[in-house]
Amino acid sequence: MTATLSTEAHPPSPGARSFGGRITERAAEHPEKVAFIAARQDGRDESVTWAELERAANQTARLLEQRGTTPGSTVVVAMRFQPAHVYVTVGTWKLGARILPLRWDLPAWERDQLLELVSPSVVVAEWTDHKWAKLAPDELAQAAALDDTPLPDLIAEPPLMLASGGSTGRPKIIVPTLVPEVMTGVSLRATSTAVPYRTGQVQLVPAPPYHTNGFRMAYMGLLEADSLVLLERFDAARVVDLIERYRVNSVVMVPIMLQRVAQLPGVRERDFSSIEAVLYGGAPIPEWLARFWIDLVGPEHFYFSYGSTEGFGIVSMRGDDWLKHPGATGRGVETDVRILGPDGEELPPGEVGEIYLRSQVDQGAPSFYLGAPPAPETPVGFRSIGDLGRLDAYV
Asked: What tens digit of pLDDT does each residue of 74-95 get?
């Protein structure tokens, strides 16, 4: 059966808030507090308060509406992290539409396959060679002349999507279903039970906005009233400067980012005392690099993780636990883990097979793909993205 998207939007259920409504609520709570800081490639830092975010997002929503965006439709944004990316994303939610962030440097053949899958109402990008409605980033300034008052509280289901080719697969869209609305008792941070995130923290986001480590950590953090530091382009020296300057509490990095920071001259003499959690994931990490970061920020502040954009489950462990068992990634966090062989048989500890996860959190309907077959699933609800691994008898 071919998966499809809903083209409708509706008010949030009683006791809940839409993503757009949540931003309005946060802006009313602390209008002059900094919502995010855009750390530009040229070295400038641009601070935006919650009141400024609310006004600009409402204005951008009306510009998107003028360009054909309706409740339940899809807006594509292909830009680096900067204020305009935030305004487009939040503005899309305020219209009751859904957002799909894409890489700004996608080859045309891949880009066009993805756009065809979602039939966007408008594409916010520098691209000019596609058939869909276009809104260039420099045209977003036109929004400043529009009404900045709140819009009706609507939400598309789902309000966001992310693109992926996987490790080897063809381009596809991952459609999560665990994020229809906020304030319903379901945390929107995929790793919130594994890492001690707290409301209102200062979070540095060095990953790009088309990746789950960038988009979800940033925008779900924003909904949780974090103050974000958004890096327009990754630079290891800038990361350390920003951690010191803004007393950053948490950051998510992949191994190559961790390695580049670790190789900075004099990095051990820099001030990481504000750090409460460094979360690593995305690829295997060399043992020397794990030990370096555990020593740099303390074992209780460095976290290992394995998961996926699909949200099938999460595996995690803290640095002090890892030191007792080097090379491990962790245990399931509200997640059941199985290693299965080629015929679907469960393999014993020590044998390498395909990793299957089953979240213990009630997610309702599971995430699905546009442009690809469903993920492999067992009769009892374990699902796989195709990675290999093994279990051991460690307790």
From this structure: 999 999 999 999 999 999 999 9
**Other Cβ atoms closer than 10 A to 336:** 14
The domain that contains 89 carries what CATH number?
A: 3.40.50.980
Using CA atoms, how far apart are residues 330 and 315, in angstroms rounded to an integer? 5
Range of the structural domain that residue 99 is part of: 7-27+48-163
Q: Over the chain, what is the mean pLDDT?
A: 90
Prior bond of 158 cis (ω within 30°): yes
Per-residue pLDDT, 168? 53
Angle at 73 between CA 72 and CA 75, to 5 degrees: 130
Q: In degrees to the nearest 10, what's the CA dihedral of 329, 330, 333, 335? A: 70
Among candidates 207, 235, 233, 232, which has minimal Cα distance to 221? 207
Q: Is residue 84 part of a domain?
A: yes
| Domain presence at residue 125 | yes
Token code pair at residue 276? 């409460």
Sheet with 172-175: strands ordered across: 162-164, 172-175, 368-370
SS3 state at 68? coil
DSSP calls for 155-172: EESSSB-EEE-TTT---E
User: Burial level of 167, CB count in 10 A (0-12/13-18/19+)?
Assistant: exposed
Residues 6+ apart with CB under 8 A from 146: 59, 62, 63
Whole-angstrom CA distances from 384 to 2, 98, 311, 375, 391 are 19, 26, 10, 6, 15
Contact 114, 171 (CB under 8 A): yes
Cα 333 from chain centre: 19
Q: What are phi and psi of 47, to 5 degrees?
A: -90, 140
How many domains would you assign to the chain? 1
Identity at 68, one-letter amino acid code: G
Give the pLDDT band of residue 190 (cuts 50, 70, 90).
very low
Which pTM value belongs to this model?
0.93
Please check whether residue 377 lies inside any domain of the structure.
Answer: no
